[in-house]
Amino acid sequence: MADLSPQMPRAGVDYPRTFAQFQDWFSSDEACFEYLAKLRWPDGFVCPRCGGREYWRTGAGLWMCRACSRRTSVTAGTIFDRTRTPLRTWFAAVWFVTAQKNGVSALGLQRVLGMKSYETAWAWMHKLRRAMVRPDREMLSGLVEVDESFIGGVHRGLPGVGPDMISVLVAAEHLDHNRIGRIRLEPGPTDRRLALVKFGQRVVAPGSTIRTDGARQLRRFADLGYQHEYFTQLGSDIPAHVNMPAVHMAASQLKRWIDGTLHQGISREQLGYYLDEFTFRFNRRTARSRGLLFYRLLQQATNTDPAPLKDLVIPQDSDPRPLHE
Fold first, then answer.
1. Using one digit for the tens of pLDDT, what is the confidence trace for 233-266?
2. Strands (E) located in 70-157
3. Helix, strand, coil abundance in the chain, percent, nearest 5
4. CB-based burial label for 73 (10 Å; 0-12, 13-18, 19+)
């Protein structure tokens, strides 16, 4: 099976090329455990207590450090921690989630895996979403457009931002020939003052060129280590999407994805994780192999802390209304 070498992952060697190959590779839980171990410890086992590298396998399938006798499960400290579900089912869920270009809803996952509980499918989706963004990912660079968009309900006769709409901060790399590169998305904070400036500093590498509208507060970028370009929309005959096509394209596709994939609506409390999923998919939209996305998501899942159900559900004092219905 896979040797998971440190070079660029290879189809058919480091990850399954097809669904038939996926079924062949992961026909048992033991095969899944071995694959997960190679993803978690690509350079060999490392004891989480003493850093020892020599081990032996116990009859229960645990890794025991020869130096300190610490027993470790390959799933401990990952999103699979303490799961009672066979890893084969988890792997099937990851394959299904990444194989679908536009993603799936919790209801879709429940149906395809034959889960008895919608709550379980919902929890699994949110665990996987938490693994879709690496904390150490590279910042955007080059020419980057930064703007704010709004998603939520549409109210006839009410111009501007409606009471059920919520802010989303958008940053998108503007490549040559008006092509769009990587994106970053975050829910807008309640206090919108300087929100875009702080967002830009978090996601755009210093020295890059940031393009914005003509809002005066955004001109601070020029004093923060960025080249700043801006367009004053007021009184201009040029539509905003012409001056900043990348952020408008990203925002437009986000809205279509929410409407087309997440038919049941999403809560404000969980919005950030849905934005992470969209970002994961959008930034990998040109990937030729869905198997590579399976590999990347599993790889990140081994480095993502457990998320118990009580930490996933919406707090009782939060606003339970969906962003759309």
1. 655 555 555 789 999 999 999 999 988 876 646 6
2. 71-72, 143-152
3. 40, 15, 45
4. middle
Name the 3-class secondary structure at 322.
Answer: strand
| Angle (CA) 245 152 277, round 5° | 65
Angstrom CA distances, 158 to 153, 155, 321, stand at 11, 6, 19
CB 48 within 8 A of CB 64: no
In this structure, what token pair is assigned to residue 160? 């501007």
Determine the length of the chain: 325
pLDDT tens across 123-171, in order? 999 999 999 988 789 999 999 999 999 987 544 444 455 556 889 999 9
pTM value is 0.85
For 205, residues 6+ apart whose C-beta sits below 8 A from its C-beta are 138, 139, 140, 141
CA distances from 167 to 13, 125, 317 (A): 43, 23, 20
CA 144 from chain centre, in angstroms, equals: 20
